[in-house]
Amino acid sequence: MTARLLPFSDDPIRPSAPATVTIRLDGAPLDGVAGQSIAGVILASGPLAFRRTSVSGRPRGVFCGIGVCFDCLVEVNGDRDVRACQRRAADGDVVVTQHDPLPGSTA
Ligand code: FES
């Protein structure tokens, strides 16, 4: 876990040790706490971008964080186009970044 994730002892809402979850992002294990979204686990572990746009290949990650913009799409356990900010991370989730270039694009 990185400095972006506060130690639970500093959290006034949850003073006891949280349950942990481990997901895999493109094969790399990432640790989080129970209740975090997949996007939350990824962001707390470091990466800010985990998708590229179809036309220009620009990096995208969390933009709205509330399920509106679809910038955070990932594949979760074989299901494509899952909004990472809306899916609660479950222990053992296999997350794969997505990039679907349009035909004829240079991305
Ligand atoms: S960040 Fe906007 S839908 Fe997930």
Mind explaining what this structure looks like?
With 107 residues, the chain is mostly beta strands. It has one helix spanning 38-45, and strands at residues 20-25, 28-33, 49-52, 59-61, 73-76, 79-83, 94-97. The strands form 2 sheets. Strands 2-1-7-5-6 form a 5-stranded mixed sheet, covered by helices on one side. A two-stranded antiparallel ribbon has the order 3-4. 23% of the residues are buried. The protein binds FE2/S2 (inorganic) cluster. The site of FE2/S2 (inorganic) cluster (FES) has 12 residues, from loops.
Which features does this protein show?
107 residues; mainly beta; Ubiquitin-like (UB roll); 7% helix; elongated; binds FE2/S2 (inorganic) cluster
Low-confidence stretches: none
* Distance from first to last alpha carbon: 32 Å
SSE topology string? EEHEEEEE
**Main β sheet profile:** 5 strands, mixed
Total count of domains: 1
Give average pLDDT, whole number.
89
| Portion of residues within helices | under 10%
CATH architecture: Roll
CATH topology: Ubiquitin-like (UB roll)
Instruction: Indicate the overall shape.
Output: elongated
Please report the total strand number as a whole number.
Answer: 7
Kindly estimate the percentage of residues that lie in beta strands according to DSSP: 25-35%
CATH superfamily: 2Fe-2S iron-sulphur cluster binding domain, sarcosine oxidase, alpha subunit, N-terminal domain
CATH class: Alpha Beta
Task: Give a short synopsis of this structure.
The protein has 107 residues and is mainly beta.
Write the layout of secondary structure elements.
Blueprint (H helix, E strand, L loop, with lengths): L19 E6 L2 E6 L4 H8 L3 E4 L6 E3 L11 E4 L2 E5 L10 E4 L10
Parallel strand pairs: 1-7
Antiparallel strand pairs: 1-2, 3-4, 5-6, 5-7
FE2/S2 (inorganic) cluster binds next to loops.
